[in-house]
Amino acid sequence: MNIVVLGAGSIGCYVAGCLLASGPVFNSSNTLTLIGRQRLCNDIVANGLKVTDWRGRKQMTDANHVNFSLNNDSLASADIILLCVKSQDTESAARIIKQYGKPNALVVSLQNGVRNADLLRQHLEQVVIAGMVPFNVFYKGGGHFHCGTEGDIALEDPGNHCAEFIKALESASLPVTVYSDMAAVQYGKLIMNLNNAVNALSGIPLKSQLGNRQYRLVMAKVLSEALTVLNAEGITPARTGKVIPKLMPTIMKLPNFLFNLVAASTLKIDPEARSSMYEDLVLGRRTEIDYLNGEITRLGKKHHIATPVNKHIVELIKQSEQAQKGSPHLPANSLSGN
Known about the structure:
By secondary structure, the protein is an alpha/beta fold.
């Protein structure tokens, strides 16, 4: 099994780091290759690849055992292509896979958003597996990737194409849940990901942001708008963790002492965790806002339902992208557009 991670950012490097540290089967440069940016390549060459998590995982792979490439030639030998690019880069990634990938390679999308697998299937002859990563990974620098929240990787695999890959993930302590239809699961993850922008705009760690009731009240509005438009679309988002999506607006409105009681049993968040969108702003990169809160505004327009808070947050993120100054560190009362 030859695995290539295309778009090896925080998620791709974390999953790869866990696989590499899981045993000798992945401790060879010809079984797992990462394709990514020069910045991460330099960091990993200098420091190796370190993965940690909120439960206490602490694993290190020496740089000599990490095959990090800056070109796409490695795709030619891939049995499994883990696609971890941003949603806005899915179509260009499909062209790369079409050019370099084997026709019988398995393409596994571990991306945010709800439309990537369908888009890939429009362009590729390879079997495409829709996936979902529920946990948050934050790059701490120096080749160190930290998973700050819990959750099992979800894969849509009705044809049982992923049996060997799933075995490898589980041997690396990355549990997998298999679904016959991922749509409801992806929308469940979308609901959770709507907080990414609020966190990025706040500029503070996730745990601190969710511990602040004023930010939670903004999230309650964001989630209420989302659930309304998804209902109009005929979609019931699946539960991807311990929290039922339709209860989330109510939970967000709770006073701090009650929220803390609920969070203690349902939301396991590392104090250092931040959203990937926060990291995108810090690095001056385009975010996935159009595929997250932007998906809610799109469905709102389709069904003639107002989504003012999500619309305002999309605008704030786009302003921050253009400013190229990282997080604007906005207070909660600036996020609802009132």
